[in-house]
Design brief:
The protein is of the alpha/beta class. The chain folds into two domains: 85 residues; 292 residues, TIM Barrel (Alpha-Beta Barrel), CATH 3.20.20.140. It contains 20 helices and eight strands. The chain has an eight-stranded parallel beta sheet. The protein starts with a helix and ends with a helix.
């Protein structure tokens, strides 16, 4: 048996711990209860929402056609004709590669075509039934996953052993009108002062900190990661105006909002350290289309140096390898003892760059500070294809390192186990 064959067998047989998903509850998928943002339709088109839809837009699909494609009630044949032209242009991207493998593995169809789309549509509906999440995890060889719910600050899942939950601190730190409204909906409380807001945050940590696997914040979607130190007294004067959003005159300006957010992120980092929870931060490329300012993304790594230095007791999980500036993140993991990197989402963003990244990482930085898989999906089915793509990349990297003399064949099994599950078991709480 060749080295590559041995490595592939070892990688295929080792279960992943999936460190990042946004999955809905299985019960909602089974009921078909639609959600305009997270479950806009309940047919095969839904599997394109994460993230193939973004490549469709990049390929030229009009936004109006994509909306029609993702709306409920449109017949499968009409949906296929909306997407076919653009699908043929993107079928080899990482996003589409993962979805095609999902079609092949779950539905027995190699591709979305004129001949197959009706069968895929029927098989989609047949597959969604009680227990289908467990079946997906079995097929993808995933031991369990971490879920960052996009519906609640912390989701009390009915499947806690399989769907382990992050505590989202985004709303605490961003402090937008929508965030304050969501917290009020969850708690019945509307803070009128900074002390009342901090008390609510404390209560969330007290209730959910012992259940969470990490805290998660994706504030990089709306601002840079340069968090200055701000006094509580100064922020206490700002907060009431931000919380009272009954009129436009009460909204704070961008400088005051930044100070409020800077203070809150630091407060939450201290709470995470108190509860011994790793802190997952979004870095790198942004989801969606036609909205990203690359300069801000480029500065993520340098901005984070300040937090890494000022919070040495916090384990920062820097997500998505900082793509397309992944080399700078290798430098962070090499230099800072509290910097960990997560390859979630990265394999489908750019499979070749992710393969090169992992190879370079393993000869530059400690192998105990990287997590190699997270699907980053709201829909569960594409996990199957993404996991396959990640296994292919890991197999190729380990085989190349052996063939080039950077790694011995005897070291490979323990390294594979560490990369795919061991590091996650070591770093994240197992409640």
């Amino acid at each position: 048996m060749t080295v590559i064959s041995k490595i592939r067998d070892a990688v295929e047989s080792t279960p992943f711990i999936d460190t990042h998903e946004h999955l809905l509850e299985e019960s909602q998928r089974i009921s078909g209860e639609l959600d305009a943002r997270l479950l806009p339709c309940d047919d095969f088109a839904y599997l394109f929402q994460d993230y193939v839809a973004e490549d469709l837009i990049a390929a030229g699909m009009p936004v109006s056609d994509l909306r029609r494609f993702l709306q409920p009630g449109l017949k499968p044949n009409a949906k296929f004709h909306l997407v076919d032209r653009y699908w043929r242009s993107i079928r080899n991207t990482g996003y589409s590669f993962a979805l095609r493998h999902t079609f092949r593995t779950l539905y027995g169809e190699d591709d979305l075509t004129q001949d197959s789309h009706l069968r895929i549509s029927a098989k989609y509906r047949e597959f969604v039934k009680p227990g289908f999440y467990s079946e997906i995890f079995r097929v993808a060889n995933v031991e369990h996953c971490h879920v960052n719910s996009l519906q609640r600050t912390f989701f009390e899942t009915s499947q806690p052993a399989m769907l382990r939950q992050d505590l989202s601190i985004l709303g605490f730190c961003r402090c937008s009108a929508g965030d304050l409204n969501q917290i009020e909906a969850e708690t019945g409380k509307r803070p009128g002062s900074l002390d009342e807001w901090l008390e609510i945050v404390d209560q969330y940590f007290e209730k959910y900190g012992p259940k969470a696997v990490a805290v998660k914040c994706q504030i990089a979607y709306s601002r840079s990661l340069d968090f200055s130190e701000v006094s509580k007294a100064k922020v206490a004067k700002i907060f009431p105006n931000q919380a009272d959003l009954t009129g436009a005159l009460h909204a704070v300006g961008p400088e005051d909002l930044k100070m409020l957010q800077d203070f809150m992120i630091r407060y939450c980092l201290n709470k995470a350290e108190e509860y011994n929870l790793p802190v997952k931060l979004h870095t790198g490329i942004l989801a969606a289309a036609n909205k990203m300012f690359l300069r801000r993304v480029r500065d993520n790594a340098s901005d984070l140096c300040y937090l890494l230095q000022e919070f040495p007791g916090v384990r920062f999980i820097l997500m998505h390898i900082g793509y397309p500036y992944q080399h700078e993140f290798i430098a962070l993991a090499k230099h800072y003892s509290n910097a960990y990197l997560d390859m979630c989402w990265a394999w489908i963003i750019d499979p070749v760059a992710s393969t090169q990244f992992l190879k370079q990482y393993l000869v530059a930085a400690p192998s105990n500070k990287i997590f190699t898989f997270g699907g980053d999906y709201v829909s569960a089915e594409p996990i199957v294809g993404h996991a396959h793509l990640a296994r292919l990349g890991i197999s190729n990297v380990v085989s190349q390192l052996i063939n080039e003399g950077w790694l011995s064949e005897e070291e490979a099994p323990s390294l594979i186990n560490r990369l795919m599950r061991g590091n996650a078991l070591e770093i994240f709480p197992t409640h």
